[in-house]
């Protein structure tokens, strides 16, 4: 494979030339630029606002645990988007991002990248830009990391723990604050290129940032322009995905297969046909055939009655063989491997800001950000399967004589039959996600003239518009006309449509079937905020400081579906997609907040300083009414080298406009495959542990009560791991409430020896308890709990709440759009310990020699003690710490390792450095074992991965950086029992990746 495609290599060279040209032009226009760098985060300043507080203070002390990530660490990740850097931190779990290539039919997630703290979901993680709210990118309130002006990031500060008192709703799990460079002067250009070891997944990025002072230094302006291009990476190019075809079974195939339901043919009729193929005989039940019939390319038939499969002919080789469970087994499943591990992305970002001192005591600013990007993903072709199976009349003219013989033996020979088919003739389903986001923010600040009290007021107007365009769909009404036509559809298109055996129809027929849809989502936000802060009066231990303010916030949501999904008769005409209704709504919020910093003790034994930080916020939501949040934090400086911090926060999260008003839509949800010992899959499936267990008779009775036909009860198999579940908004939702606790200490080395003087350590314990959590009740759990998993339905009552979520097709028993209601569920309780160690060694101080460089070690470790979930009030509580595989919510992570760490070893010499990064994720058991300790579903082994990076200053002040991520090309662990199933949000599925970058400043 040519790993460096000529066209893309040319783009890289052109981009580099553009960067050089941009630099030359700027150099000619800017005389003697001021290149003074901003101080590092953590450098003491005369005044600074600590993330998590509204009070300006003379030091950089935070009461809550803060993790800081610098711009250099983001560059060393080798990624062109910031989400991968955050996801690798122990405090985060994966939450969509570059691997997010598929979406629901409303197209709300495709290509977006989120930050999920503590595994509690991105909607409980508040993202800020310089301490101010950003435009939500998803109706659930989540902010897309793709809209961050990354070229201007100075550092990223992460507070893990509730901060609703300081910032309002959505800060339940914590806050991620992106601090931008200030007073930027000069010109910086940056270009980066990367490619995987498999020759795909390429990325290219170029940006330029121009800034300078004006009006005799009273003003500063900065403009940053960024272009990013990322290409897809495919499953089929990696050997660990390729073996997806080694499991025996039947998938939906282009040739098609038949579902008879309760109207089954006789076994004698089936064997009379198969005897012509000389492949053996089939068995039945009560004289009837209990399996399905599939079609070969030549329209001969094969059986799908369990294992072995008889007379299947490979469509690629036309070779006849038997599919069995031996070492040469093969799944009848064509099209896998066409999935994308990383979606295409093309992004344009523009950010500008002007600061200006109107007078000596009044300052103003205005900033503008605009982001436009497209992400394109290709998936499997449209499938007519499960609840979206086609119905074909027995009079269809393309039915072969062999198949007609079998149909005629049914008790009702003239009845229609259900047909499953993969529409490869339409090509892959292409999802194009287009995002257009802007935000304008402006404000004033100044000195009040009373002591050191200052004031600040700002307003913000923003909008996010998303379009989800889908290609490769199939029209249900067009197919119905073709299939029920006495001529096979020749009156509609040339040659008609033969659905059997993968006969390629004419282009006219393909165009007649094919459909394109376009759904549009629009979110708007308006913010006005004003505040005062400063000193009040002095106490013996120091000055009491305060912050007081008010704000108004308006958020709206509007969804317009494609007309084909919202037909006047209440149906959807696109195969595989449910009806979507136009929806929308708005929420406005009025808030008052106050914070007080009280110095309590000072200059006592073991108490150099003891401060108390108190806060309160009242919020009045148009949706849920008035709510209260409050906090009490302590800061205890015990000695010069020992400091304690911690506190309590009551946080809330009001339901977002999307959670209140989003349209009901269908999404493909995995419930797993049934096994004799596992808890996954449809419990009514005869292969499941439910049917094979000691309560198998009770399970069967419940299945019959739900709608599985009696004629099928002893042979029923779902035949897929997916169901199409319904989820939508709920205007009756109430706010979530969270109690968060933290306590920890920071130790800075008290030793003066060169070996230990550069050592610092922080240890923080946290506990977050979320009550009335808003989320969809997992339909996988709905199935399990309905059938008494965990003791949730001991009487196998069909009227049990969980059972009420499941309806079944009375002909086939297949689940019909089971519901995942959006509710105020039970609660989450998450607790653990964070550890961070920094150790700096100057080798010259150790006697190695003059100018021998410096060695730095940084490690961040997180231990998860509990991750308890109670789905409904009064229901059983399960602890998922140390497990993987449970989809808590649509945008929350599924991996909850006990231990997770990221450790960096860096050697620096002059203006060059070389670093090795070690990322570790602990082994985990399957989440199925949490609910059912007897489950045999496999977990994942421990995962160690190493990255290498280096940077050096070249002549002409050009900084070069290179790196390799996943240095040893470690493949991800398989999740669950399904081969080819990997967690792309938490593990590296791309493989070894190379990148190179250049930066030039003037």
TrEMBL record:
Cellular compartments per GO CC: cell outer membrane
Major site of localization recorded for this protein: membrane
Designated name of the protein? TonB-dependent receptor
Entry membrane topology: Multi-pass membrane protein
Listed PROSITE patterns:
TONB_DEPENDENT_REC_3
Keywords of this protein's UniProt record, alphabetized?
Cell outer membrane, Membrane, Receptor, Signal, TonB box, Transmembrane, Transmembrane beta strand, Transport
Superkingdom, natural source: Bacteria
Which range is the signal sequence, renumbered to this chain? 1-28
Task: Name the species this protein comes from.
Answer: Altericroceibacterium indicum
Family according to the record:
Belongs to the TonB-dependent receptor family.
The UniProt entry, under PANTHER family, shows:
PTHR47234, TONB-DEPENDENT RECEPTOR
Domain (TonB-dependent receptor-like beta-barrel) ranges: 436-967
Record lineage: Bacteria, Pseudomonadati, Pseudomonadota, Alphaproteobacteria, Sphingomonadales
């Amino acid at each position: 494979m040519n790993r460096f495609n000529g066209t893309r290599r040319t783009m890289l060279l052109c981009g580099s030339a553009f960067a050089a040209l941009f630099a030359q032009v700027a150099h000619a226009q800017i005389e003697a630029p001021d290149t003074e760098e901003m101080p590092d985060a953590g450098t003491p300043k005369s005044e600074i606002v600590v993330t998590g507080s509204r009070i300006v203070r003379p030091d950089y002390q935070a009461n809550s645990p803060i993790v800081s990530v610098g711009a250099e660490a983001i560059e060393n990740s080798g990624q062109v988007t910031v989400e991968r850097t955050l996801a690798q931190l122990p405090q985060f779990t994966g939450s969509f991002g570059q691997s997010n290539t598929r979406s629901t039919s409303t197209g709300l997630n495709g290509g977006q990248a989120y930050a999920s703290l503590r595994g509690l979901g991105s909607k409980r993680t508040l993202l800020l830009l310089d301490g101010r709210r950003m435009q939500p990118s998803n109706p659930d309130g989540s902010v897309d990391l793709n809209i961050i002006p990354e070229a201007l990031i100075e550092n990223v500060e992460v507070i893990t723990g509730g901060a609703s008192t300081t910032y309002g709703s959505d800060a339940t799990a914590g806050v991620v604050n992106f601090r931008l460079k200030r007073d930027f002067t000069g010109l910086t250009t940056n270009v980066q290129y990367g490619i995987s070891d498999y020759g795909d997944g390429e990325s290219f990025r170029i940006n330029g940032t121009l800034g300078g002072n004006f009006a005799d230094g009273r003003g500063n302006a900065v403009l940053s322009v960024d272009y990013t291009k990322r290409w897809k990476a495919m499953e089929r190019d990696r050997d660990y995905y390729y073996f997806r075809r080694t499991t025996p079974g039947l998938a939906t195939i282009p040739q098609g297969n038949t579902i008879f339901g309760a109207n089954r043919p006789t076994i004698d009729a089936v064997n009379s046909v198969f005897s012509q193929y000389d492949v053996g005989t089939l068995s039945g039940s009560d004289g009837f055939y209990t399996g399905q019939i599939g079609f070969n390319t030549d329209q001969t038939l094969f059986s799908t009655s369990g294992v072995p499969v008889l007379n299947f002919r490979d469509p690629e080789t036309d070779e006849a063989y038997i599919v069995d469970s031996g070492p040469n087994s093969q799944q009848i499943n064509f099209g896998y491997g066409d999935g994308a591990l990383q979606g295409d992305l093309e992004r344009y970002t523009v950010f500008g800001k002007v600061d200006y001192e109107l007078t000596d005591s009044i300052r103003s600013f205005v900033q503008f950000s605009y982001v436009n990007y497209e992400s394109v993903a290709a998936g499997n072709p449209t499938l007519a399967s499960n609840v979206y199976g086609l119905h074909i009349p027995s009079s269809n003219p393309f039915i072969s004589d062999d198949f007609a013989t079998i149909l005629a033996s049914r008790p009702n020979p003239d009845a229609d039959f259900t047909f499953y088919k993969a529409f490869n003739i339409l090509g892959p389903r292409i999802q194009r996600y287009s995002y257009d986001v802007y935000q304008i923010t402006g404000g004033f600040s100044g000195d009040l003239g009373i002591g050191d009290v200052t004031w600040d007021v700002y307003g913000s107007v923003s909008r996010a518009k998303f379009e989800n365009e889908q290609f490769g769909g199939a029209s249900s009404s067009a197919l119905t006309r073709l299939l029920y036509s006495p001529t096979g559809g020749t009156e509609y298109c040339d040659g008609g449509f033969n659905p059997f055996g993968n006969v390629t129809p004419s282009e006219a027929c393909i165009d007649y079937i094919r459909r394109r849809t376009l759904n549009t989502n629009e979110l708007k936000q308006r913010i006005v905020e004003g505040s005062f802060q400063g000193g009040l009066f002095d106490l013996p231990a120091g000055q009491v400081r305060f912050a007081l303010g008010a704000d108004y916030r308006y958020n709206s949501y509007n969804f317009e579906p494609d007309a084909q999904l919202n037909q006047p008769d209440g149906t959807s005409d696109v195969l595989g997609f449910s009806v979507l209704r136009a929806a929308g709504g708005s929420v406005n919020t009025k808030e008052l907040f106050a914070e007080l910093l009280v110095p309590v003790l000072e200059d006592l034994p073991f108490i150099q300083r003891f401060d108390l930080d108190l806060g309160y916020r009242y919020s009045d939501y148009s949706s849920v009414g008035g709510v209260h949040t409050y906090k009490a934090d302590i800061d205890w400086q015990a000695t010069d080298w020992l400091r304690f911090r911690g506190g309590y926060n009551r946080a809330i999260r009001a339901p977002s406009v999307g959670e209140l008003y989003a349209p009901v839509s269908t999404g493909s949800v995995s419930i797993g495959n049934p096994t004799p010992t596992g808890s996954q899959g449809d419990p009514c499936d005869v292969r499941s542990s439910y049917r094979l267990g000691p309560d198998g008779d009770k399970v069967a009775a419940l299945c019959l009560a739900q709608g599985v036909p009696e004629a099928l009860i002893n042979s029923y198999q779902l035949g897929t791991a997916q169901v199409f579940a319904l989820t939508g908004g709920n205007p009756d939702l109430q706010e979530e409430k969270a109690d968060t606790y933290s306590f920890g200490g920071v130790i800075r080395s008290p030793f003066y020896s060169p070996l230990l003087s550069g050592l610092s350590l922080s240890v923080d314990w946290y506990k977050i308890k979320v009550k009335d959590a808003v989320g969809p009740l997992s339909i996988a759990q709905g199935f399990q709990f309905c059938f008494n998993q965990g003791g949730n339905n001991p009487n196998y009552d069909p009227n049990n709440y969980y059972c009420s979520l499941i309806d079944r097709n009375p002909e086939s028993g297949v689940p019909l759009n089971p519901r995942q209601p959006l509710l105020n569920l039970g609660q989450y309780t998450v607790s653990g310990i964070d550890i961070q160690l920094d150790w700096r060694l100057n080798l010259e101080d150790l006697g190695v020699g003059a100018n021998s460089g410096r060695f730095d070690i940084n490690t961040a470790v997180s231990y998860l003690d509990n991750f308890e979930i109670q789905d409904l009030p009064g229901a059983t509580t399960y602890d998922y710490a140390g497990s993987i595989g449970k989809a808590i919510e649509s945008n929350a992570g599924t991996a909850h390792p006990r231990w997770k760490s990221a450790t960096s070893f860096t050697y620096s010499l002059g203006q060059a450095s070389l670093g090795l990064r070690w990322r570790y994720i602990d082994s985990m058991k399957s989440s199925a074992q949490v609910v059912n300790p007897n489950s045999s579903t496999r977990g994942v082994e421990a995962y160690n991965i190493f990255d290498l990076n280096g940077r050096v200053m070249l002549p002409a002040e050009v900084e070069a950086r290179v790196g390799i991520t996943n240095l040893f090309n470690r493949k991800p662990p398989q999740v669950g029992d399904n081969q080819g199933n990997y967690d792309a949000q938490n593990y590296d599925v791309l493989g070894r990746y190379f990148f190179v970058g250049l930066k030039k400043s003037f």
